[in-house]
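Morning!

This is the sequence you dropped in the shared folder:
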Amino acid sequence: MLNSFLTAFNAVMPFLIYLGIGFMIVRTGLADIPFMNRLNKMTFQVIFPFMMFNNIYSAAPDAMPSVTLIVTAVVSVLVWIGILMLTVPRLVRENPRRGVIIQAIYRSNIVIYGIPLATYVFGTEKAAIASMLVIAVVTTYNITAVIVLETFNGKERVKLRTLLLRLVKNPLLQGCMAGLLFFLLHIRLPSFLSTPVSSLAGMATPLALITLGGTLQFSAVRKNLKILIPVLFFKLILLPLFMVVFAYTVIGLRGVELFMILMIYATPVAATSYPMAVNMGGDGELAGQLVFLSTVVSLLTVFLFIFSMSQMGLLV
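The structure's back. Tokens below.
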């Protein structure tokens, strides 16, 4: 039990520390929220692509995720989107909230949380599987998020050409694809390039979590609790529990691949869902609160999931 506790504790605590540092930086006046928002934008557009590239570029030749894992991840996300688009409109009256809730339930922060947690639990080599899986998952997230929000706002009509252009310009996918190209063609960087690439990649997670911690706000949550509590209970507990059991018993996934199914469903709501909701006519306030609360609550729920799976021997 002690080993299981330490596995979960060592995986989750760095996240809490980084969030706490960011929170205190803003509260002590060393930086303000607008600065943190700009830093966050820079991190996603400049630093994160280096992490995505480096994780795949430096992967071992046998670090490719299995076809079973990729198909399970993508198909399950699409199935849940279909289920949610049928059920959420029956439970929620306001159109702007429907798309926000659907996106919050299925779209997780797998980039910020999934890859580092996989690294902490399984080591760098196996964590490369997470980076490669992200290509398929993030692409699915980006395409479907536009479709979902467009369906329920009636304001912005996104053409196929615009959608494809957004995907091509996505910095995370650009980093993934560049890393995959170098990996498949066995192209090696000279040391004067590999050193800064590796250093920048190591900055991504701390910077992202510090900026996220700096923008966390506890105000204006109470009035939406009737929606926030059931949505987050389903998103952070019921859905990942069901998917882990399903992936283990029906699909037969084990070890790091089973862990990545957990990361797809148990990590907090994707931070990018907030600006996307604001720009596409969704309920921006609700979207921001879902990102904030899911980030805080998931520290406990992810810890409990990792502890339980380690205790049951599912992470071997």
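Headline: The chain has a mean pLDDT of 85.

More detail when I'm at my desk.
O.
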